[in-house]
Amino acid sequence: MTLRSRLWFEPRDLNGMLHRGWLRAQGHTTSDFDGRPVIGIANSWSEATPCNAHLRRVAEHVKRGVWQAGGFPLEFPTMSLSENLMKPTTMLFRNLMAMEVEESIRGMPFDAVVLLSGCDKTTAAMLMGAASADVPAIMVTGGPMLRGIRGTRDLAGATAVWEISAEQRIGTVDAAEMLDLESCIARSDGHCGVMGTASTLAAIAEALGLTLPGNAAIPAPDSRRLVLAESSGRTAVALALSGVRPSHILTREAFENAIAVDMAIGGSTNAIIHMLALARRIGIPLDLADFDRISTTTPLIANLRPSGEYQMEDFYYAGGIPAVIAQLLPNLHGSAMTVNGQSIDENNRGAAILDARVIRDIQNPLAQEGGTVILGGNLCPGGAVIKRSAASPGLLHHRGRAVVFRDKHDLMARIDDPELEVDADSVLVQQMGGPIGGPGMPEWGMLPIPEKLIRAGVRDMVRISDARMSGTSFGTCVLHVSPESAIGGPLALVQDGDEIELDVNGRSLELCVSDAELTARRTAWIAPPPAFTRGYGRLYLDRVMQANEGADLDFLAGGPGRDLDPYRPTSH
Questions:
Q1: Please, what is the angle between helix 252-264 and helix 320-328, to 10°?
Q2: In terms of domains, do 66 and 161 share one?
Q3: Of 216, 308, 332, 352, which has fewest CB within 10 angstroms of its CB?
Q4: pLDDT tens across 15-24, in order?
Q5: What does DSSP say about strands 397-405 and 427-430: parallel, antiparallel, or unpaired?
Q6: What CATH number does residue 261 fall under?
Q7: What pLDDT does residue 197 have?
Q8: Is residue 435 part of a domain?
Q9: Does residue 110 lie within any of the structural domains?
Q10: What are 117's strand-pairing partners?
Q11: How far is the C-alpha of 51 from the C-alpha of 58, rounded, in Å?
Q12: Number of domains in the chain
């Protein structure tokens, strides 16, 4: 096949001279890139993104593999989205980063790309951008950090933060202990060390076939991650020569495999939004019903926090995603192809469970169904999600009176008010947390328990919002309510004292208010003013889709974009 890069570097005319000559300014010779596959290394490294701060070293090992296989590596930077530092939320900028990745790939002379990601939205954005560009691609994630430990106490990184914060609010953890805990929760390179969103998306990338086997769980400081990075560089050259593109790998069958793996590992609810967006980018029909259907036939077999007991470091030693896939193979599309040219069956058949405490045999699961459930009902006609594996069993069927917060600011102002009319049976409802209302659909869905209830021993309540929840979070939290409150969805009409019934097994979320009353409230409802009037924020508000459609920009769905005109590469 004809390499894309030849159209930049092969012509012996003015354009060709300019393309070759300016690369020679870096000390390259023509033989470095003239005739070799050119491999772009998209690096989301950033010191402002702690999860990705080690990716420079990973990139050097990818380059080594590219050179070994006869390719020419060119590393380039991308936007980097720091989940814990970037405000108001990285989800607001996922689509922007995906657009940048897409156009960087399409506009440059790359025959294949290696995507280096870590923090959750960097992985989602890179997958979306690469799918839209549809140039051969392989992903290498940065890996989870080492397990969080303080003395003999298992802190579980970001999940521990949520647990500790409740104790801090009632004064059982003092300032000195907080500082000590702070030094223990993130003690190495890598993303969150539990089955949060970053770990989930790495697992999904592996299950989709876009990484080498075993990529998802190797701890970031482990030298085996660098060995895998080197192997991925060699694989990228093979992809360039074969012409296998994301659209060849991201089939309907691949997405069904990835959903099954997501359910088996108790993956983050955020994965649903990202997979919906990715499927739309590549033109694959996928909706919430597919997730619920596969969840009902996929057992939960990974005992990982926040749903279970262990962390990602333990998961790797127990066999990682290959062991999970091997257990699920009878229910997967085993012939689905992957970036190394082998099928998902060939890559994972025979992978052993090395620690049955962490990964269960499919005949002895933690639960008979997957970790996530899709809800319907008059409060969420477009759907909603709940991570059943991280919820309290006693709240999975619950009816209670609503305590409503207009937005995050209202919540923070009143949640600890001693006069707040709330009890353990109440249902906390937060509005204005969706794609438009947030804006950007922030991770606000794990609403805090009122302080007076924490003091009374309450540690979980039914909580409902159109926002997202960190994959490291837990509790009986109904999320992604669609359509969202900011556009007049039913969530906008809920008032204090309304009764709400949640029935997880029945897949139902009902607002127990008459249709006539809801019609009257809808007539009186007034839309909030837009959060942005210019720039990317305005573009986002004008074109973002709802959560049940992936919260992507509508004009980016429908299939990969057209490649650059191969006979007219952009001149200098």
A1: 110
A2: no
A3: 352
A4: 889 999 999 9
A5: parallel
A6: 3.40.50.2300
A7: 95
A8: yes
A9: yes
A10: 141
A11: 13
A12: 3
What confidence tens digit (pLDDT) does each residue in 507-564 have? 999 999 999 999 999 999 999 999 999 999 999 999 999 999 999 999 999 988 777 6
Q: Which residues of the chain have pLDDT under 50?
A: 566, 569-572
Do 106 and 205 belong together in one domain? yes
Residue 561: is it exposed, middle or buried by C-beta count within 10 angstroms (0-12/13-18/19+)?
middle
Tokens 């689905």 sit at which residue? 336
The pairing of beta strand 372-375 with beta strand 112-117: unpaired
| HEC per residue, 513-533 | CCHHHHHHHHHHCCCCCCCCC
- Which pTM was predicted? 0.95
Strand partners, 372: 387
Q: Which residue's entry shows tokens 């809801």?
A: 518
Nearest 5°: the CA angle 502, 200, 295 is: 45
- Asked if residues 557 and 281 have their Cβ atoms less than 8 Å apart, the reply is yes
Query: Tokens 């409902």, residue?
Result: 464
Where do the H-state alpha helices sit in 405-552? Answer: 408-414, 451-455, 515-524, 535-543
Instruction: State the number of CA atoms in the 13 A half-sphere of 259 facing the CB.
Output: 32
Residues 343 and 461 in one domain: no
The answer to whether 143 and 218 have CB atoms below 8 angstroms apart is yes
> Residue 165 belongs to what domain range?
149-182
Instruction: Evaluate whether residue 529 is within a structural domain.
Output: no
